[in-house]
Amino acid sequence: MMGAARVGKSSIISQFLYEKYLSRYKQTIEEMHRGEYELPDGSSLTLDILDTSGSYQFPAMRALSINTSGAFILVYAVDDEETWNEVERLREQIISVRGTRVPIVIVGNKADVAEEDRQIPFKVARSRALLEWGCGYAECSAKNNEGILTVFKQLLRQANIEYNLSPAVRRRRKSLPSYTGSPNPARANSAKYYLKRHSCSVQ
């Protein structure tokens, strides 16, 4: 999951996996989360979700993430135009490295803000994502826990993975160790960075 700082990336992940809202901002360096789903047909789905830094201080970590991830969620805040511009830059960087077939979902967070405080109209963002870029699109409010499930359903749809993420499906969630300091290229060889059958590594 990628995007500018303070757009709510960590809060989206926290609501999706742990049903908790992070009311206090804490800068993320890089943190891996895993959600394991038992599907009705008996198969399993594992989502490895990497929460990345919104800071420009870690270009090597960002480049490694782009090279190794199976799918991408690019988050902006609907009340901050500059965060939308950052999504445009990130998408261009991803496409230049991975091509146009990699699954990408554009997500507008903070959809609970008043309409007059919006800087990016819903119709403009959705049209750009769907029609011009061929990406998935969703809006959500991490604060109010609204639209969170839709974000990940859109991602799996983009990745052509059959899913059932309904609350009735048993989930096992955990946070994996954080990666801090200099990125270790050896981690790119870890199995969790590859898109496997019934498994998806998400940025």
UniProtKB/TrEMBL annotation:
UniProt cross-references to InterPro entries, sorted A to Z: P-loop_NTPase, Small_GTP-bd, Small_GTPase, Small_GTPase_RasD
Keyword Transcription appears in the UniProt entry: no
Keywords: Cell membrane, GTP-binding, Lipoprotein, Membrane, Methylation, Nucleotide-binding, Prenylation
Membrane-topology descriptor: Lipid-anchor
Matching SMART domains: RAB, RAS, RHO
Family label: Belongs to the small GTPase superfamily. RasD family.
Protein name, UniProt field: GTP-binding protein Rhes
Cited PROSITE patterns: RAB, RAS
Taxonomic superkingdom: Eukaryota
Compartment(s): Cell membrane
Coiled coil: none
Gene3D superfamilies: P-loop containing nucleotide triphosphate hydrolases
Zinc-finger in keyword set: no
Any GO CC annotation of this UniProt entry: plasma membrane
One Gene Ontology MF term: GTPase activity
A Pfam family the protein falls into: Ras
